[in-house]
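Researcher: We're reviewing a set of sequences before deciding which ones to prioritize for further study. For each one, I'd like a predicted 3D structure that I can look through quickly. This is peptidylprolyl isomerase. If possible, include the structure in token form so it fits the rest of the review sheet.
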Amino acid sequence: MISPLGARDLDRTGRAETTTVFTHASVAEGMGDLTATLHTSKGDIDVELYDERAPRTVENFVGLATGEKSWTDPETGEEVDGEPLYDDVLFHRIIEDFMIQTGDPTGTGRGGPGYQFDDEFHDELRHDDAGILSMANSGPDTNGSQFFITLDAQPHLDGRHAVFGKVTDGMDVVREIGSVDTDANDRPSEDVLLESVTVHDE
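Model: Here's the predicted structure for peptidylprolyl isomerase, in token form for your review sheet.
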């Protein structure tokens, strides 16, 4: 468990029981200069995706965003095909001046896509600014669907969480989400949704 702010852990508890291995074929053949728009209930956030330096992580994100990747509904146990995971999911964890976290289909912080994949680190990708997209996890090699966006540089997360993109427009939206009132467990007092993600292959 990683504790970037004392007893607070940037993770998701509850490990999936299966592991999925990704190939680089679809990334190498079909991706390049990828961007995406995160449509939230507070406004749009445009991001660039580091598909050349974090291909597996970006492939996973894109697949879950578009519905091209199958995932398991954590509440029913049924496999979901052709439906995006990132439709109408809560920003379930917000810590002021630190990060906003989403990507759990249950909205509890314990859910995921029904599989895990290994960490993917690159020397050039660091938590060195606000607006960094990075994978949430519950320890080494436990990535799934949850991710966060930093509200400031968080260098202590380097080598622990996989960076895969950065905000290019809409940091005002990120900061607005980051300023929402929360309870003692960092859960927002109002529902803030990631309504959908549009991926652009430019």
